[in-house]
């Protein structure tokens, strides 16, 4: 069951769903508008010929700040990472989904590739995966409405919501766009002896 505007407001009033700071007139009939923060991660030319998904690759991106009056230009065919201005918190019995704005999609702007799903228990800013599939550049301004988030009631609260120790959640609490941490899925947790050796104990 997708939550209506009335249900969204009720869950927000109870502090169960948080979208902060909430923009003016942000609550729509069955979603909440989200805006673009000022940080963008762009992929730079690199000596690398490929990305090994089993290893860290933070050096292939660089951080760009969108300044007032100087929008970020997303070129045709370009891919970049942004994030929501809002910090979003989802309760254990709700799942959320982010989608782009129809008006921006008509320019060729996609705001996520496959990661529009937000797990129950999530808290933090949401990373956006920008692609320009049009033939002209698209300007992105900090604070602009970039998409919207809807909420669906689960049949029961999740036994292991996002952020649970069992899940080793990689992005919980993020405060801006974060490059892929996929490689962490293949790093085994260290036992106590290994942790002490790393710490120099």
What fraction strand?
25-35%
How many runs of DSSP E, i.e. beta strands? 13
Distance between the termini: 52 Å
Q: SSE string, helix = H, strand = E?
A: HEEEEEEEEHEEEEEH
How is the main sheet built? 6 strands, antiparallel
Number of helices: 3
Question: What fraction, in percent, of the residue positions are helical?
Answer: under 10%
Topology:
Elements lengths: L4 H9 L4 E3 L6 E2 L2 E5 L3 E5 L17 E5 L6 E3 L4 E11 L4 E7 L1 H4 L3 E2 L6 E2 L4 E10 L5 E3 L4 E9 L38 H7 L3
Tell me about this structure.
- With 201 residues, this protein is mainly beta.
- Helices cover 10% and strands 33% of the residues.
- It contains three helices and 13 strands; from the N terminus they run H-E-E-E-E-E-E-E-E-H-E-E-E-E-E-H.
- It has helices at residues 5-13, 102-105, 192-198; strands at residues 18-20, 27-28, 31-35, 39-43, 61-65, 72-74, 79-89, 94-100, 109-110, 117-118, 123-132, 138-140, 145-153.
- Strands 1, 4, 5, 7, 9 and 11 form a six-stranded antiparallel β-sheet that branches. A five-stranded antiparallel β-sheet has the order 2-3-13-8-10. Strands 6-12 form a two-stranded antiparallel sheet.
- The longest helix is centred in the N-terminal third of the chain and has 9 residues, at 5-13.
- It is globular, with a radius of gyration of 19 Å.
- The termini are far apart.
- Residues 190-201 have low confidence and may be disordered.
